[in-house]
Amino acid sequence: MSSANSRHPLAPAELWQSLTWDRGKELSDHARFTIEYGVKVFFADPRSPWQRGTNENTNGLLRQYFPKGTDLSRWSEHEIQAVARTLNHRPRKTLGWKTPAETLNEYLKSVRQPGVATTG
Predict the structure, then answer these.
(1) Does the pTM exceed 0.85?
(2) Which band of pLDDT confidence, cut at 50, 70 and 90, is reported for residue 6?
(3) What's the rounded Cα separation, in Å, for the pair 14 and 23?
(4) Hey, where are the domains in the chain?
(5) C-alpha dihedral over 67, 79, 104, 11, to 10 degrees?
């Protein structure tokens, strides 16, 4: 991690406002993450998967490709990226049957639209 200014160049600031993490020990360094990236971290309550609906749904989709306990080091970056592309282009009921890629592109277009000047 380097600094709050080193966020992904293609991700607008609107996408970096907060993050909800599970309560796993691997996420114990959340304070440093918040300081370094300026992203607020929230934790779901124990045994409350409904607070992480998108995460739970995505985990289920990923399990179709990588069963629980799979050693991801066996897979090449190319193979993992192929799964990501497949899932990002898979329509979702929660998105009105749009794909995550379509939904993100629509959002990015809307936040990049210049304001309309009014005459008064």
Answers:
(1) no
(2) low
(3) 24
(4) 13-43, 53-112
(5) 110
Closest CA to 55 of 22, 88, 99, 86: 22
CA distance readout (Å), 76 to 59, 60, 63, 81, 87: 19, 21, 17, 9, 17
The beta strands (E) that lie in the chain are given as 18-21, 40-43
Q: Which of 38, 37, 39, 42 is nearest to 23 (CA)?
A: 42
Question: Model confidence at 99, in pLDDT bands (50, 70, 90)?
Answer: very high
